[in-house]
Amino acid sequence: MNYSRLVDILSKKELKVTPQRLAVLEALMQLKTHPTAEEIKDYVRKKNPNLALGTVYNILDTFYEKRIVTKVKTDKDFVRYDMDMHKHHHIYCEECDSIENYYDNELDELLQDYFKKKRIPNFKIKEINLQITGNYIEHKPTKTN
Ligand SMILES: [Zn+2]
Hints:
By secondary structure, this protein is of the alpha+beta class. It has 2 domains: 3-82, Winged helix-like DNA-binding domain superfamily/Winged helix DNA-binding domain (Arc Repressor Mutant, subunit A, Orthogonal Bundle); 89-134, Dna Ligase, domain 1 (2-Layer Sandwich), CATH 3.30.1490. It has helices at 3-12, 19-30, 37-47, 53-65, 105-117, and strands at 70-72, 80-82, 89-93, 98-102, 131-134. A hairpin with a 7-residue loop joins strand 1 and strand 2 (80-82). The chain is globular and about 50 Å long. It starts with a helix and ends in an 11-residue tail after the last strand. Bound molecules: zinc ion (ZN).
């Protein structure tokens, strides 16, 4: 793991660089797509056995406020965290409970154009993120989360 890159992310957001924050950030980078706070805690605890779940939650809240992460919700479970701040949608497989990123510029433009023409009364749209729910027809051999 490239620590200078992690330090960079925290510094840019004017956050004090602490070992705990670095550990959580590393977990988010390593776990890639959409881990829960529990999963992040488990990952971080391997190296830092004393880190409490509360601390992990506090750090994640700070990261969320600073827009280092976004939150993803599914019907089934808790909040999951997403470090990819580029515009994307989500594909959610109900069967294996996995969330994958879905990038489609054409779809973004289509949605933007649509709501430019057809406004929602009394509402200003900031962002449109789709969650496309379904099932993989052929499941991947490993659960990717
Ligand atoms: Zn995502």
